[in-house]
Amino acid sequence: MPDPAPSTERTVVHLVRHGEVHNPDKLLYGRMPDFHLSELGRRMADMAASYLRERDITHLVSSPLERAQETMQPLAEALGQDVTLDERVIEAGNDFEGLTVGSNPKQLLHPRFWTKLRDPLQPSWGEPYSEIAERMSAAVADARDAARGHEAVIVSHQLPVWTARRHYEGARLWHDPRSRECSLASVTSVTFVGDDVVSLSYAEPAAPLLAQASKVVGA
């Protein structure tokens, strides 16, 4: 029997970063529970929903963390669709979780942190970039298959979204965090023809609100 012809169906998976989080203590909150969207973050979620709601979306996926589910909520309600929670799109693991090293980096000068900083290319302070790329690409592939010929939305977090993008672009995974193009409530869209990535695009539906946002530490 000849091999079946490759699929030429076009599918788009949109990777959405959650909106601003209420974090008055400026903790690096990572995977900690009970970190919710701020009022501004909820407005950002509404803007992301408005940007996506008219598209041909048939499958919704969210990180299990509250801020991601809250970002997905207005879109899910607008579309009348259920949301699948997927641990594979959760925030990256970080050994500094619960500390304020993001807003007070001088803490890292303490000797107890030195072993965590030995290899920034991995990185040695948390989940390796290669593992983030592997779990994110697997989740994206499953979302693509579930929405085959249509579109899917995954709400995740800055580092997982950015790592997935660099993976699809064939770029090195280690990077300067200040260079990430992945603002609050942004949309990174991966377009497939069959199983092959053919293009990536980026949009900032909440751009008018970004200047009002606090510096997000544990995004």
Task: Outline the structure in words.
This protein is an alpha/beta fold and 219 residues long. 26% of the residues lie in helices and 17% in strands. The protein has 4 helices and 6 strands; from the N terminus they run βαβαβαβαββ. It has helices at residues 39-52, 66-79, 129-146, 158-169; strands at 10-17, 57-62, 84-85, 151-156, 187-193, 196-203. Helix 1 crosses helix 2 (66-79) and helix 3 packs across helix 4 (158-169). This is Fructose-2,6-bisphosphatase. It holds the Pfam family His_Phos_1. It comes from Luteipulveratus halotolerans. One of its GO terms (molecular function) is phosphatase activity.
CATH topology assignment: Rossmann fold
Total of domains: 1
CATH architecture: 3-Layer(aba) Sandwich
Tally of DSSP β-strands:
6
SSE run? EHEHEHEHEE
Q: Return the CATH class.
A: Alpha Beta
Given as residue ranges, the uncertain stretches (5+ residues, pLDDT < 50) are none
Radius of gyration: 18 Å
Mind summarizing the main beta sheet? 6 strands, mixed
CATH superfamily: Phosphoglycerate mutase-like
Overall geometry comes to globular
* Count of helical regions: 4
- What distance lies between the first and last C-alpha atoms, to the nearest angstrom? 50 Å
Protein name: Fructose-2,6-bisphosphatase
Organism: Luteipulveratus halotolerans
GO molecular function, one term: phosphatase activity
InterPro entries: His_Pase_superF_clade-1 (IPR013078), His_PPase_superfam (IPR029033), PGM_Phosphatase (IPR050275)
